[in-house]
Amino acid sequence: MKCIGLVTLHKLGLYNSAVRKGITETVSRALNDTQVKAVVLCGENGQFCGGADIKEFAKPMSGPALVPMIHAIEAGEKPVVAAIEGIALGGGLELALGCHYRVAHAKGIINLYFEALKLGIVDKVTDGNVVDAAMEMALSVIGRPLSPRRLSTLSTPPLANLDGVFEAAMAQVKRRSRGAMAPVACVKAVRAAAELPYSQGMKRELELMGTLMSSGQAKALQYCFFAQRAVGKWSLPNGAQWNNSRPRDIRTAGVIGLGTMGRGIVVSLVKAGISVVAVEMEEKQLDLGRKEVTGILERDAKRRGVTAPLHLISFALSLQSLRGVDLVIEAVFEDMELKKRVFADLSRVCNQNTMLCTNTSGLDVDQIASVTDRPPLVVGMHFFAPAHVMKLLEVVCGPRSSAEAVATAMSLGKRMGKVSVAVGNCPGFVGNRMLKSYMDESVFLLEEGASPEQVDQALEEFGFALGIFKVGDLSGLDVGWRVRKSSGLIGPDVNPTFPSRVRQGRRYCPLPDLLCEQGRWGQKTGRGWYLYDSAGGRVARPDPEIQRFLQDYRLRYGIPSRRISEQEVVERCVFALANEGFRVLEDGMAAGPEDIDMVYVFGYGWPRHRGGPMFHAAQVGLPRVLQRLEFYYRENPDIPHLQPSTLLRRLVGAGSPPIQQWKQYIRSTHSQL
């Protein structure tokens, strides 16, 4: 009788030392059992293998190594068939390729987005039971020679213009990776596979892997992986937290305002399967919003080969249309009085149990809630533009926000595919509060002799996708201009011909205001810190007019221009950012450094391979950060945000404990989280 050995991968499809040990021992027994003629390798709970268990990365290697285990399977004298269901990622795909045959379910994901069957990655695709199909194949191949099925023995087909192909690939990867080591190593590993015999290619891959695994970037990426999951475990001072507070089931939602942000929020809700009523006050804006939302959803559906869920959206010109929804998200212009009027109207229109959320980027959520009849049901849901693309959602917990409201906003964010981070209610919350120091330093550097392109280049080489001045042009410089006006930094008491460089008791740079007065609002006007081919253009070019503008400004104020190094640009911008992050922690506006770092990784383009501003400070060394901030503060005593924070000094005094222990040193008496 011909017997098929069935080996099942456990632990939710992840391979760790226990799984590797189990596979090695079970396959070995099957290969040595004379009754067993073939082996089928399958996963558990509908998943083949999700790759490595990241929890093991920071630990010493234990149990059988992955590659020798795969080699042993491939070298066996009995056919081994992989039954691939669900996912086969990373090492899971390597394991499947080590088998002699591969059968996959039609709905499985093989990690690589091409036609696996056509390319020979799998031998058969089935709509039925993948294990049954694999066992059937195993029976059919018993006795066939296995040499042609061992992929490691096959030669790589020659590639025309190999040098040119890999040089182009490397140039593209370096341009996109912004200093990340892993993408560059991947190109090197693929080139080794194309040029070298299998054993030498594997040796080269092992060398590259060793360099990566011991790097600071590996530690940063592992930190991000766990931090992303940790931030969902929120808590409030009253004891309410993620695992004891039940969220509401949101089936219908309203969105007020169909500007760029509102459209993205509508799309995000609809893609999550939620029925949406979108409201605008003017018919022209409503029609424009309808056209844009419909277009985004239709393009997305076409790309994914599905039908656009347009039946889930309705558009209206009156708040009365929101009477029966479960939750409303306001996304009107960033003006406190306007938002108060909207929320007062919503209190009269909506059911008493409807949750009211504001998308404000930094206004007082409790002040907005104060005009309603339900402050406990008011929270901030601060999305980031474009909202259907950006992953971050700051859930702003007002002092009167209920646990149910916070739980619902966090849950809804997760349902929309966001990384939801609970933050406290202070001006700018976490992200924009910290961003102010970063932006202030960038314009102070312009005053002192730098150019926009010099600052941006330094920050992009650090790893940011876009430098701060390109970001400003993209977002619209007029937005910040209006915020500064509403905050009282710009007003009738400011001399229009010679605006003061001191406002509210601290150094102030009027350069952005002067730029906006010239109608240079960024990409939307074709001119900002950079020059564009036309209004709405995307390609930034240095503008000689900006150089003259800066020179005239320095002459007018008697500011000597000096040479500014790339190191100074990065340190003043990035360390000022982290320094404010320490103050955020001290004030209890973020639960921990992980929350701050995830805000910046997912909302502000912080390079993931640097972990986040707080992780980066720890990796550079807190004494070094303290020393450089002290130096820059001595040089610029009129810039308060360069003065090292109390928490930073406390941590350095405690011997710079690991970032996971920082919470022990935070002494906030008024924490909101």
UniProtKB/TrEMBL annotation:
GO terms for cellular component: peroxisome. Its EC number is 1.1.1.35, 4.2.1.17, 5.3.3.8. Keywords: Fatty acid metabolism, Isomerase, Lipid metabolism, Lyase, Multifunctional enzyme, NAD, Oxidoreductase, Peroxisome. One of its GO terms (biological process) is fatty acid beta-oxidation. Residues 428-532, 569-656 form the 3-hydroxyacyl-CoA dehydrogenase C-terminal domain. GO terms for molecular function: (3S)-3-hydroxyacyl-CoA dehydrogenase (NAD+) activity; delta(3)-delta(2)-enoyl-CoA isomerase activity; enoyl-CoA hydratase activity; NAD+ binding. It catalyses: (3S)-hydroxyhexadecanoyl-CoA = (2E)-hexadecenoyl-CoA + H2O; (3E)-hexenoyl-CoA = (2E)-hexenoyl-CoA; a (3E)-enoyl-CoA = a 4-saturated (2E)-enoyl-CoA; (3E,5Z)-tetradecadienoyl-CoA = (2E,5Z)-tetradecadienoyl-CoA. The keyword NAD applies. Its main location: other. CDD domains: crotonase-like. It is found in: Peroxisome. Pathway: Lipid metabolism; fatty acid beta-oxidation. Gene3D superfamilies: 1.10.1040.50, 2-enoyl-CoA Hydratase, Chain A, domain 1, NAD(P)-binding Rossmann-like Domain. Pfam families: 3HCDH, 3HCDH_N, ECH_1. PROSITE patterns: ENOYL_COA_HYDRATASE. Residues 253-425 form the 3-hydroxyacyl-CoA dehydrogenase NAD binding domain. InterPro entries: 3-OHacyl-CoA_DH_NAD-bd (IPR006176), 3HC_DH_C (IPR006108), 6-PGluconate_DH-like_C_sf (IPR008927), ClpP/crotonase-like_dom_sf (IPR029045), Enoyl-CoA_hyd/isom_CS (IPR018376), Enoyl-CoA_hydra/iso (IPR001753), NAD(P)-bd_dom_sf (IPR036291). Monomer. In the N-terminal section; belongs to the enoyl-CoA hydratase/isomerase family. This is Peroxisomal bifunctional enzyme.
